[in-house]
């Protein structure tokens, strides 16, 4: 195992994750209604569809895919796929 380099970037915590979605609206419903995240204001200068949510000290940025049909169709949960985990 590599020797620890300390914290040369002075990182303190994770600020947010950003997820590209087939449907920002459907994803917002999941994070709000199921997980209890609250929508927060996005910068007005952004010229693309998306939403920001916050809860439990975690920020989630949802970005609308420019080509939703090109995203992989997920039929089952794959523990080896990209994911986030809540405790």
In brief, what are we looking at here?
With 87 residues, the chain is an alpha+beta fold.
Report on this model:
With 87 residues, this protein is an alpha+beta fold. It has a domain at 28-68. 13% of the residues lie in helices and 25% in strands. It has one helix at 24-34; strands at 16-21, 38-40, 50-55, 58-64. The protein has a four-stranded mixed sheet with strand order 1-4-3-2, with helices on one face. A hairpin with a 2-residue loop joins strand 3 and strand 4. The longest helix has 11 residues, at 24-34. The radius of gyration is 16 Å and the shape is globular.
Provide key terms for this protein.
alpha+beta; 87 residues; four-stranded mixed β-sheet
User: How do the strands of the widest beta sheet line up side by side?
Assistant: 1-4-3-2
Q: Write down the secondary-structure element order.
A: EHEEE
Give the overall average pLDDT: 90
The outline comes out as globular
**Separation of the first and last Cα atoms:** 27 Å
- What is the beta-strand fraction? 25-35%
- What does the main sheet amount to? 4 strands, mixed
The Cα radius of gyration reads: 16 Å
Tally of DSSP β-strands:
4
Helical content, roughly?
A: 10-25%
What's the number of helices? 1
Give unreliable regions as ranges: none
Structural class by secondary-structure content:
alpha+beta
């Amino acid at each position: 195992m590599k020797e620890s380099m300390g914290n040369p970037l002075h990182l303190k915590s994770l600020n947010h994750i950003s997820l590209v979605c087939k449907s920002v609206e459907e994803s917002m419903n999941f994070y709000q209604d199921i997980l209890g995240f609250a929508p927060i204001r996005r910068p007005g200068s952004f010229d693309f569809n998306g939403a920001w949510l916050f809860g439990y000290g975690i920020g989630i940025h949802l970005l609308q895919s420019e080509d939703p049909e090109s995203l992989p169709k997920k039929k089952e949960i794959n523990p080896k796929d990209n994911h986030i985990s809540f405790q």
